[in-house]
Amino acid sequence: MSKLPHIGTSIFTVMSQMATEHQAINLSQGFPNFPIDDRLTSILAKLARENIHQYTPMSGLPSLLDKIAVLTQKSYGRNVSAKEEILITAGATEGIFATIQALVKVNEEVIILDPSYDCYEAPILLSNAKPIRVSLNNDFTPNWEVIFAAANEKTKLIIINNPHNPTGKMWTENDFIQLEKLVDAYPNLLVLSDEVYEYISFEQTHISVHHRPKLWQRSISVSSFGKSFHITGWKIGYVIAPENIMREIKKVHQFLVFSVSSIAQHALNEYIDLVEVKALGQFYQQKRDFFSRLMKDTKLELLPCEGTYFQVASYANISAENDLDFTKRLVTEYGVATIPISIFYANGNDNKCIRFCFAKDDETLTRAAERLRRL
Predict the structure, then answer these.
(1) Contact 279/316 with Cβ under 8 angstroms?
(2) pLDDT tens digits, residue range 1-24?
(3) Does the global pTM surpass 0.90?
(4) Pick the CATH number of 50-271 from 3.30.300.30, 3.40.640.10, 1.10.8.50, 2.30.130.40
């Protein structure tokens, strides 16, 4: 008998398979199609010949942990303990899974804000806990009245994602003030902050839980080297949490993977000294603006994109089809693969929107837009 009976093949796999079958341009899955930094390639090639291929310590390579602490202080002004409060994980997904498994007990509740990424719910269900799915407003901002109504003494976690996948929206100062009020109201409530796109923000400055001293002892943040450095296939990220919470997360982590790829950690340990992470937002803003200009001649309406490398578009003035059928038709008839937004909702809410990934080279984006102009 399945422990996750309602979970089948993910929409990301389905759309990528359809893209291959129909030779479509794949703007569905969230990964870049351009090369990684030559400096990182050179570091990797050099390290391949060195004696760094055995296990690293369970928490991570000590020198890399130190550099993450420096990066956190430089980016957010927060001092964290490299030894006690940081954990290198096998991607952000493992960090999220380990956190939920470590902290959430039977019959406790976890608030998820929909539309939401699909890796949040499974570890909650595997903990025999209850996911509480709360929809964002129509403009994808948090509805604090509904969130407060959903919280109670059994609520162990609220999962936030900022900048937000799939919508590209970002939280405001007021959103964090409301979050702090929620945490104050429920002393046992913790915040799991998915910040994998933290360095991909545009006109609006990204606000992190690391900016909020009131949240430091009640928050777990999850970051992704894969997203920040265009190396999604390396599956490497990190978690930051106060020592008492991190102790519990490490207990689960050691039995999931024990330690993370040694060569990846050593490579990032050298590369992090060479790269300016804040330039990442400028790089992807150029991508966003380029894609936006290309799409002006289509019938699709682009919604505001404040961060991430995802662009949501409405097709409401083109078709009355549900978004899953529309995205499948985009692949079969127009040769472009996207993701329907309804799959990010527990209730399947269909607002006639689809998600594009614009982390692609200019040629790919140009060819996709040419096809979409035929809509």
Answers:
(1) no
(2) 899 988 888 888 898 999 999 999
(3) yes
(4) 3.40.640.10
